[in-house]
Amino acid sequence: MSAEKQYIRDIVTEVIYNDKQMSVKECAKMFNKDPRTIIKAIENSEIKANKVGKSYYIPKLQFLK
């Protein structure tokens, strides 16, 4: 199995068996980006997220499309 297919399989497994949302920090780590970059993407509607208080929660399923 190629590395890319294994990576996709790992993400699908994580979404199915674990929480379906992640924090900005978790998203930044997943994509090897700075958390400020993720927040800018949320503010520009490039990433869908729910804001609860001062925190954003990002649905993981949007990254499987």
Shape designation: globular
Total count of helical runs of at least 4 residues: 3
Mean pLDDT score: 86
According to DSSP, the number of beta strands is: 3
Give an overview in words.
- By secondary structure, this protein is of the alpha+beta class.
- The chain has a single domain (3-64), classed as Arc Repressor Mutant, subunit A, CATH 1.10.10.
- Helices cover 49% and strands 17% of the residues.
- It has helices at residues 3-17, 24-31, 35-43, and strands at residues 21-23, 50-52, 55-59.
- It has a 3-stranded antiparallel sheet with strand order 1-3-2.
- Helix 2 packs across helix 3 (35-43).
- The longest helix is centred in the first third of the chain and has 15 residues, at 3-17.
